[in-house]
Design a protein that fits this description.
The structure is a single chain. With 228 residues, the protein is an alpha/beta fold. It is built from 10 helices and 8 strands. It has a 6-stranded parallel beta sheet, with helices on both faces.
């Protein structure tokens, strides 16, 4: 299928992201060591706080640190101390340093696909933080356009299609998140490619229609070369 427009998600599609957050959460729960709540109950409380904060403040490491602090305050029923804030920041140092680990085969696959198709990037989150990760990835030269947005919904995809005069029948959104990548792109009339990542954030999960013929399900990123 030559001459397609391939729109790529970034976090957990091009590079690993959420597993770093999961590592921090595991260390955070160890540190909390709550006397009455087990890990599942603590995680449920943190998930609720993250859900509220992502809706109100967006995404990224800064909002994540805010959620961890609010979790401590809720569980200990008092304001977070400066020492606790410093400890949380230490736990999350890998996030704050914006380390980037490409998913295997990404660079080579983008290099090959770029010779046959128009490649775009669409990622959500804090603009400055996402740009730093993109710069560190050394992938930006593969894309004819980079779009960093606060949230991905059906209107995001419709607006992008209008801005770039995209043919929906020849446009594919490629990502790991049913909630942000696949479902809204399909609602906007685009095709989609779902590449699952076992570390995908729980708040990005969603149910896909197994009968939808315009969603291609792949196991790994390099498989894109077999279809495009």
């Amino acid at each position: 299928m030559a001459g397609q427009v391939l729109i790529f998600d970034a976090d957990d599609t091009l590079w690993e992201n959420n597993y770093l957050f999961e590592r921090v959460i595991e260390d955070f729960l160890d540190w909390l060591d709550h006397p009455t709540l087990d890990r599942a109950e603590l995680r449920a409380i943190l998930d609720d706080i993250e859900r509220a904060n992502s809706a109100a403040h967006g995404y990224g490491s800064k909002v994540f640190l805010r959620s961890l602090g609010e979790c401590v305050a809720r569980l200990r029923e008092r304001p977070v101390t400066e020492a606790e804030r410093e400890h949380i920041a230490t736990l999350a140092s890998a996030l704050l340093n914006h380390e980037v680990e490409l998913i295997p085969g990404v660079a080579e696959t983008l290099d090959e696909l770029g010779g046959r198709h128009e490649l775009l990037l669409l990622t959500k989150g804090d603009a400055e933080e996402q740009q730093r990760k993109l710069d560190a990835s050394n992938l930006v030269h593969h894309f004819r356009g980079v779009h960093i947005v606060a949230e991905k919904g059906v209107d995001t995809y419709r607006q992008l299609a209008e801005e770039r005069s995209l043919s929906l029948e020849q446009t594919w959104m490629i990502g790991n998140s049913p909630k942000s990548d696949i479902l809204p792109a399909r609602q906007a009339g685009m095709n989609a490619v779902f590449i699952p990542n076992e570390s995908t954030w729980v708040l990005e999960h969603g149910e896909l229609d197994p009968t939808d013929q315009r969603v291609l399900h792949l196991r790994a990123f390099p498989e894109l070369r077999e279809h495009f």
